[in-house]
Known about the structure:
By secondary structure, the protein is mainly alpha-helical. It has helices at residues 10-30, 41-65, 72-92. It has 3 helices and no strands.
Amino acid sequence: MAETERTQSPYVKALTCSAIAFVLAIGAYFLGYTLPSFKSASDAASRLLALVLVPGLVVGLFAKKSPKTWPLWLIIGAFVIVLIAVTVVHEMTASMRV
């Protein structure tokens, strides 16, 4: 049975995307751009952290379990797509979280 090459440190790459997205989101928050569901600064920081960590973990898991090697551009692209999907679902379900 041939050994397949795996993606090297997929979680580190995906969570680096999460860290960069978190820094950009906090910067945008301080410039006045925010999601409608955020009520306060502490609420925004904790939700932003969760919003960017979930896609990083999901993409890291997919890249680790994939039998093919994921290039960096694929990890970044998948992260952006999952981040958008998670954010849309978060905003759509905001009225349910009271």
